[in-house]
Every structure is written in C-alpha cells, then in structure tokens.
Amino acid sequence: MKQVMNILGRFDEIEISQKIGILFILNKIYLNKDLKADDLAQKIGIQSRFVAPVFETLYGHRFKELTNMYRVEYAKNKIEAGFLNHDTLEVLADSSGFRSLSTFLNVFKKETGKYPYEYSRSYLSTV
Predict the structure, then answer these.
(1) How far apart are CA 25 and CA 19, in angstroms?
(2) How many other C-beta atoms are found inside a 10 Å radius of the C-beta of residue 95?
(3) Residue that terminates a domain, selected from 19, 38, 60
(4) Number of domains in the chain
(5) Do 10 and 54 lie in a common domain?
(6) Cα separation of 98 and 71, whole Å?
(7) How far apart are CA 75 and CA 96, in angstroms?
(8) DSSP labels for 60-111?
(9) How far apart are CA 123 and CA 73, in angstroms?
(10) What pLDDT, in 10s, does the model give residues 57-89?
C-alpha cells in the first residue's frame, strides 16, 4: 500500500485516472485480446509493477477484472442492439476482446448472473 501511495504521490491521481479512462472508455483498449498490464503501464506512463496496486487503489478491482467488466458491458450493449440475431456467440466473444468462448461465457455469467443467451432472452422480454 505504501508503494501505491508513493506512485500516486509522484503522479497526479486524477491524471492517472483520466489516462486510464481515456484508454478504456474512448479508445476501448479492453477490446484488444492481447492487452497486458505492461501495455497499459507504458501508455499511462508508469512502471508496470504499479499497475496492479494503482488499479486496486483507484478502482477496487484488479486490472484483469476491470478489463473483463468493460468487455462484458460491451457485449451486453451488443446483445441489446440485436447482435445475436445475426451473429454467433463466438463472434461476440471475439469482438468483445475475449480469447476464447469458454472464458467469455464464464466471465459473462460471473458478471451478470446469466449466460449471454439467457441475458438476451431476459432483455428482449423487458423491451
């Protein structure tokens, strides 16, 4: 924790949050299947060893957890827009940044409590 405070003391916490926000929200960096903490560290200008503690301090999540949360939100938006009416789960998983369908299904279920087709059916029944 002391290391995190040191890194956040050397860098402006707001500046780091803004850089991460730009990368995740505007640039959708989470869609990159090969995204690693080292890549993010380089883009925001900190040492890679500080990525995990910075994420846990600023967001209360690990880098991978937050990345997967953004990926699931992206997939949910695609589902709500009718993506599964014309494409497969494999294509959805791939376009959402997941390396495999099984990882996508497991993470989606963990985040939403439902598998993608269940989510799609429940969403369509409320529209």
Answers:
(1) 10
(2) 15
(3) 60
(4) 2
(5) yes
(6) 8
(7) 6
(8) SS-HHHHHHHHHHHHHHHHHHTTGGGTS-HHHHHHHTT-S-HHHHHHHHHHH
(9) 14
(10) 888 999 999 999 999 999 999 999 999 999 999
Assess whether 56 and 13 both reside in one domain.
Answer: yes
| pLDDT, position 30 | 97
Question: Where in the sequence is the domain holding 117, given as residue range(s)?
Answer: 68-126
Instruction: Name which of 52, 49, 54, 44 is nearest 22 in CA terms.
Output: 44
In this structure, are 122 and 74 located in the same domain?
Answer: yes
Instruction: Give pLDDT tens digits for 29-44.
Output: 999 999 999 999 999 8
Encode pLDDT of 83-125 as tens digits.
Answer: 999 999 999 999 999 999 999 999 999 999 999 999 999 988 8
Verify that 44 and 74 share a domain, yes or no: no
Tens of pLDDT, residue by residue over 1-29, are 555 556 556 557 778 888 999 999 999 99
Residue reference for tokens 């903490």: 37
